[in-house]
Amino acid sequence: MSYDLISAPPINPETKPFWDAAEQGKFLIRRCPACGEAHWYPRTICPLCHKADTHWEESPGTGTIYSWTHMRKCPRGPFALAYLELDEGPRVYVQFRPEDNESLEIGKRAQIMFHPVKDGATMMFAKLI
Ligand SMILES: [Zn+2]
């Protein structure tokens, strides 16, 4: 898989702060002040208690692989997708960087990272740590 074959993510006013931080290598999640829980994907209304006004929080992006799959046949080359259970609790569906594809196992530690993709955009991936 080549990073140059991955398209830029869609950006809207609700997700723009996330992608602005991503360009600086920072991973943001949202936390709800009403119930205190973090959630993924980032959204203004808490999916757990339905209160509005969640806030951004920087996360180290570390967690444990909950589940994964390796797609070996794809026009753009093999790639691996996983649910990474963040230390804050939410599970993030994320593509792993290609060099980790053959080493993934449930329970291994991993971290969110960012890498340039097609058209100079920034995309979120995960790497083993
Ligand atoms: Zn909540």
What does this structure look like?
- The chain is mostly beta strands.
- It has a single domain, classed as OB fold (Dihydrolipoamide Acetyltransferase, E2P), CATH 2.40.50.840.
- The protein has one helix at residues 16-23; strands at residues 27-31, 38-39, 55-59, 62-71, 79-86, 91-95, 109-116, 122-128.
- The strands form two sheets. Strands 6-5-4-7-8 form a five-stranded antiparallel β-sheet. A three-stranded antiparallel β-sheet has the order 2-1-3.
- β1 (27-31) and β2 (38-39) form a beta hairpin.
- The mean pLDDT is 93.
- Bound molecules: zinc ion.
- Zinc ion binds at residues 32, 34-35, 37, 46, 48-49, 51.
Write a short abstract of this structure.
By secondary structure, the chain is mainly beta. 6% of the residues lie in helices and 39% in strands. The protein is built from 1 helix and 8 strands.
Portion of residues within helices: under 10%
Our count of domains comes out at 1
Largest sheet: spatial strand order: 6-5-4-7-8
How many extended strands?
8
Mean pLDDT: 93
Any descriptors?
129 residues, mainly beta, five-stranded antiparallel β-sheet, 6% helix, binds zinc ion
